[in-house]
Structures are given as structure tokens and as C-alpha cells.
Fold:
Amino acid sequence: MKIITDKKKLDKPCEPCTSIKEGLKIGNKLLKYLKEHENGVGLAANQVGINKRVCVVNVDKPMILVNPKIIGKFKKIQFLEACLSFPGSYIVTDRYENIAVNADNHERTLIFGAENLLKTVCVQHEIDHLNGFTMFDRQSKGERYGDQQQKSERFDTN
Ligand SMILES: [Zn+2]
Structure:
């Protein structure tokens, strides 16, 4: 598997999985990839060229989401984000501190909140991927963190 870094290819929404079994099979592949690349905390299927609504997060523990959907969100926050598809880019995004998510492979609604913000934001980031959005679509208008060039300048002076 290879990570897709072409933004145009990441702009399309994914197709729903037709079964939980299909989704879990893809999810396990994604988790395996993430474990081999320890710099990532989340991955969406379309980032490796699989056009299906499956994503994984691995912040405190590995989790697969098949056909996930955000059904509730509360309290806007800003967060500094990175993405495996855009190595070296860090941007400040507008996100929510609390979200409620339904996924076919989880019986109950999942609640993510302030007690693990990285995970809460990661879930939003990955579900965005499945809907054809990247972190650049969520870039905060209020705050900016340096682009790649500024970053290398910053390191040069240290
Ligand atoms: Zn990403």
C-alpha cells in the first residue's frame, strides 16, 4: 500500500461498504499499515486508494470505523493538524471538542470529547477524508501556523 499525496484524488467521497465484514477487512489492512508507520494516528481507506467508507484511528487503542457518520457536534475549537498525505504540512483547523459518531460496526453511538482531544480531532479528520475533504478544507481563518518554507527557516536559525 502506498499513501496517496495527490489532493485531487482525495477530493472524491468514498462509497459505503456493503457489509461490516468488508469494512473490517479493509480496516485491519489500514491498522496494519498504521502500525508500520508510527508517525500516524489515523488513516482513511481512500488515502491508500481504496474508495470505501472505512477509517481507523490509533491514539490510545486501535479502532476501526465502518461507514461512520458524525451525528452530533458541540463546542468549536482550533487544533494544529498534520496528515500522512501531506508530509511536512501543519495547519490550524476549526474542529469540535465533542462529537457523536455512528458506525455500522459499533452497536452504540460513540462519544469523543475533551478527555482525548487528539483522538476526537483525528476521528473528524478521517471521516472528512471519507467525504472527500482534507484538513485544508478546515483551515481556520483566524490562526495560521507557518507553511513548509517558514518551518525550514525556523529550523535553520536554531
Ligand atoms: Zn489525513
